[in-house]
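Handout, section B. The chain below has 182 residues.
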Amino acid sequence: MQQGLFRSLVAALLLSGAASGQSQSDQSLGDVARANHAKQQAQAASGTLPKVITNQDLPADPLGVPESSPSDPMTEVSGVDRPDRYADQQLTNRLAAEQRATGQWRARIQDQENRIADLQSRIDHLNATIHNSVGTAQYDTPVNRYQAIQMERLAMMQQMLDQQKRRLATMEDLARRAGMNQ
């Protein structure tokens, strides 16, 4: 019984909401257009039209604004000369960035040179152990399997060394192009 009463109450509320919504939108589109047209005519008759400003209404040379060339930025605002601190700060920032870049290039090049020196010392040590075990340089063929593996490793290390040297040359060239003087 209570559920039936509740359902009928909800249905009544929904129907009353729909009816009130319909009564608010009783105007048709034509009625709204006519009302808007009447409003515009009333404004025109009273002489209170809003003023529309276009580019043609603006003066070509506004008063109080000095002419400036593109190469000379305007430094006057309201007739007050101001020092160009922005340009000074920009120059300082650029010089600091160049110094950091120079330092970074030097560090990267020094790191690459250290890698090359380390690899060269490892190659020299491996070369010495191979030649010491053979005894003479008359035979460059390996005596046993271990020496064969060491010789293959030596060849790979030599290729790595050549690659690192090419990388160092490229880095030095890029640093010169970036303006770093060594």
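Note. The radius of gyration is 44 Å. Compare this with the example in section A.
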